[in-house]
User: Which sequence fits this backbone?
């Protein structure tokens, strides 16, 4: 499906089969010199087919196209390795590029999941089903690194880079001040809440995410072009809702822990999730994984605020209210 948004600016909807996200938006800006594609899809056949159909319909020559990728997740980055040619420039951010270079080691994630109470058998299932591992790009990608305030100019668009860490270490959006468009990646979505997960002890992503929301709030935006679902207006109203969502979730976690100390997996199993399964036990393992990662980011935030403390009980990390 193709939507013309503004002159020379299009959205191609790329399906994500069997994912609750349903699809990802790839944005194309056409230019007589070189086109720009923003985000791509998973590195698999259905995504590639949809992309090729869309490019044909738009008359876009992939050999004259550069890429901007908002963040490292496989639904945004994966397909670029099948689309880029020798002459392509792939714009990306430094923190996520570092992460890819050092390699996200499954063993490290599994160890951290175990510490947080994730059952051993289900950890092995995640390793085989996680789309981030199944549909990531192949081979080494040469990135052209951009940072805050850098501008990509083409057609009659001047796209400014806005660093918005939180959803990932280096998540980056693009802002066009004259047309007041904000290309948001997974920083702000309309019908769904961006997932803020934590699978290491290295940082406090929820804190960074809330700061990045404040940053986006200050921009003068008319139209948000998100990574998933439809484009929308009223970005400030949506940001207020997202902040409220996280505040509610933080309160929910504190009230669960007031009844006694628990590990992250146990906390996640008692939370209310917006998902079509009757009980936690019926969740597919990939959804338990997302839910637990989301819970850990909130536990970390509360711990750093001094609301919670953490102890080790033999093999597990347990959280309790201070
Ligand atoms: Zn993402």
Assistant:
């Amino acid at each position: 499906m193709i939507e013309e948004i503004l002159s020379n600016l299009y959205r191609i909807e790329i399906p994500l089969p069997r994912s609750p996200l349903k699809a990802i938006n790839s944005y194309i800006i056409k230019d007589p010199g070189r086109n720009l594609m923003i985000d791509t899809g998973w590195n698999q056949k259905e995504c590639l087919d949809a992309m090729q159909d869309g490019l044909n319909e738009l008359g876009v020559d992939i050999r004259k196209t550069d890429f901007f990728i908002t963040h490292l997740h496989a639904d945004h980055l994966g397909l670029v390795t099948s689309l880029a040619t020798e002459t392509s420039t792939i714009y990306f951010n430094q923190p996520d590029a570092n992460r890819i270079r050092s390699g996200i080691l499954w063993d490290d994630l599994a160890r951290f999941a175990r510490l947080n109470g994730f059952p051993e058998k289900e950890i092995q299932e995640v390793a085989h089903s996680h789309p981030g591992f199944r549909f990531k790009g192949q081979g080494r990608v040469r990135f052209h690194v951009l940072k805050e305030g850098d501008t990509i100019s083409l057609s009659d668009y001047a796209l400014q880079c806005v660093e918005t860490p939180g959803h990932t270490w280096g998540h980056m959006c693009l802002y066009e001040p004259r047309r007041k468009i904000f290309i948001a990646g997974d920083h702000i979505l309309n019908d769904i809440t961006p997932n803020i997960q934590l699978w290491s002890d290295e940082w406090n992503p929820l804190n960074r995410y809330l700061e990045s929301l404040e940053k986006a709030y200050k921009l003068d935006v008319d139209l948000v072009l998100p990574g998933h679902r439809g484009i929308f207006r009223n970005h400030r109203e949506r940001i207020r809702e997202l902040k409220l969502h996280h505040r509610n979730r933080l309160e929910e976690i504190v009230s669960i822990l007031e009844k006694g100390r628990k590990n992250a997996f146990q906390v996640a199993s008692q939370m209310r999730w917006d998902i079509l399964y009757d009980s936690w036990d019926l969740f597919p393992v990939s959804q338990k994984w997302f839910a637990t990662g989301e819970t850990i980011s909130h536990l970390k935030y509360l711990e750093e605020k001094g609301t919670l403390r953490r102890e080790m009980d033999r093999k597990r990390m347990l959280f309790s209210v201070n």
